[in-house]
Amino acid sequence: MSPHNPASSRRRFLRQSLAALAGGAGFFAAPQSLSLLNAAWAQQPSCSGDYKALVCVFLLGGNDGHNLVVPRGSVEYAHYATRRRGLAIAQNQLLPITPQAGAAFPLGLHPAVPELAQLFETGKLAIVGNVGALLQPVTRQQYDDRSARLPPQLFSHNDQQAFWQSLQARSATDTTPASGWAGRLADLAQPRYNACASLAMNLSLAGANPFQVGRGSEALSVDSGQISAIETDRDPTAAAVLEAVYGDVQSNLLAEEYRRATRRAIDDYAVLRSALAAAAPLATPFPPPPGEGDPASARFAFTLGNQLRRAAELISVRQALGHRRQIFFCSLGGFDTHDAQSADQPQLLAGLSQALAAFHRATQELAVESQVTTFAASEFGRSMTSNGDGSDHGWGNHLFVLGGAVAGRRVYGAIPDLAASSEDFAADGNLIPKIGVDQYGATLARWFGIEDAALLDDCFPNLRNFAQRDLGFMSGP
Predict the structure, then answer these.
(1) Taxonomically, which superkingdom (predicted)?
(2) Which of 21, 96, 148, 157 is the most exposed place for a label (fewest CB within 10 A)?
(3) Does residue 162 contact residue 58 with C-beta atoms inside 8 Å?
(4) Which helix (H) or strand (E) holds 258?
(5) Phi and psi dihedrals of 43, rounded to 5?
């Protein structure tokens, strides 16, 4: 028999209580007040304290960051236009930004992202230049003579999405369970910050992903629409039978694991339905469903905005869920712009910008602006040169971080030199990243509350290969 664990007992009690609020045996979902449970949380010292959330927005397909952040000075823009040819944005269309630090020359943002430009100018958003998948720093000579250690299948969507999210270069014979860096963060943060939680701290609004797979902790996929559960209105007798089935321990190991997983899912969704039903609705407007004749940007804004709206709702019920730490995963697809880039990317970026601005306003409404940090991710950048109508897979990319705790209106890393003789580019034209994903993630993790060097090295397995372990873009406590 395992030893008694008080924290585990509290979690079990509160989970069962929340499920009961969702209806009797855990299947009914009549909305009821959570005031008694909130009072129970308040009586547990380990359930109170500071709150922080990380929100990953993954731009699937490889966003062309070279057209998101563009040199605006006359000399630098000329180099940009020469490299980009038919993909170059007109200089007079760029949205000027005025970084307080980190920019060696004037910069502008894509004309489709006025909301992001405004967030940058007000100090809420920072740009992180030339980030990419790295096992260790790589020079042009090492890349060109093929002596560099590189992540596997550098220009493959699937492989680079997996590496970005796991930071593990796994061999084909490796049988140890894979995990993602958000999952490993949850492994570390759960016992310290979420000991009383009734639900996983890793919550995906975009389905299962490698990013949130922990070694011990679990992730939960949450629908951005109506939270579904087993309905009992039409046949309570059948529901009671099903409840009994899922309460019966199975002798077959596979059947038992299936039973336990299903039972957990039923309980989790009962908890979610109850907590969300009792929450006050958000006043912040999010992008509405697109109407007939609306531009594609309206669809992208709604797709991502719907995920971010649900993330904001889950933040609003954090106390009822016992969460002092949360990690959310959202995604927007369509960034693999091999063709029609000049038509498609502006629509994608406009939708992205509108959805992020709405989410940031929601964090202000909930009074957690400085406690929620949103960060962009994408498996790779694009080639600088045009293939005629678009761009091919590249390497280094420009990303952004958003939130009240971000040391914003600054550029971290460096926007590369685009001159023909630049050492920032390999002989094959690929931009060589100067910042690894491990550094990017570790900077976020330190703000999240994981400061011990050994724990960071375990969570970010390539971090020890880089001299700079914290990029400095988080200023809040």
Answers:
(1) Bacteria
(2) 96
(3) no
(4) helix 253-278
(5) -80, -10
Q: Which band of pLDDT confidence, cut at 50, 70 and 90, is reported for residue 39? A: very low
The residue ranking higher by pLDDT, 248 or 160, is 160
CA distances (Å), origin 349, targets 136, 148, 309, 443: 31, 34, 18, 25
- Backbone region of residue 300 per phi and psi (left: phi > 0; alpha: psi in -120 to 50; beta: other values): alpha
Going by pLDDT thresholds of 50, 70 and 90, the confidence category of residue 430 is: very high
Q: How confident is the model at residue 9 (pLDDT cuts 50, 70, 90)?
A: very low
Q: Which helix (H) or strand (E) holds 165?
A: helix 157-166
- Supply 371's token pair: 């406690």
In the three-class reduction of DSSP (H, G, I as helix; E, B as strand; rest coil), residue 372 is classed as strand
Nearest to 227 by CA among 47, 34, 364, 23: 23
Task: Give me the numbers of helices (H) and strands (E) for the chain, helices first please.
Answer: 14, 12
Name the band, by pLDDT with cuts 50, 70 and 90, for residue 388: confident
Total count of residues recorded for the chain:
477
Q: What is the DSSP letter of 427?
A: T
Token reading at 178:
């894979």
For residues 435-456, average pLDDT:
97
Beta bridge partners of 54: 327, 373
d(CA 271, CA 23): 10
DSSP secondary structure, 314-330, as one string? HHHTHHHHT-SEEEEEE
3-state secondary structure of 436: strand
> In the block, which residue shows the tokens 């939270």?
227
Per-residue pLDDT tens over the stretch 224-259: 988 866 554 557 777 777 777 777 888 888 888 888
Give yes or no for a contact between 329 and 204, defined as CB atoms under 8 angstroms apart.
yes
End-to-end CA, the chain: 41
CB 289 within 8 A of CB 302: yes
Sheet containing 69-71: give its strands across: 69-71, 107-109, 95-97
The Cα 289–Cα 89 span in angstroms is: 29
Does domain 52-225+286-465 match CATH 1.20.58?
A: no
Query: What's residue 43's pLDDT?
Result: 46
Domain residue extents for the chain: 52-225+286-465
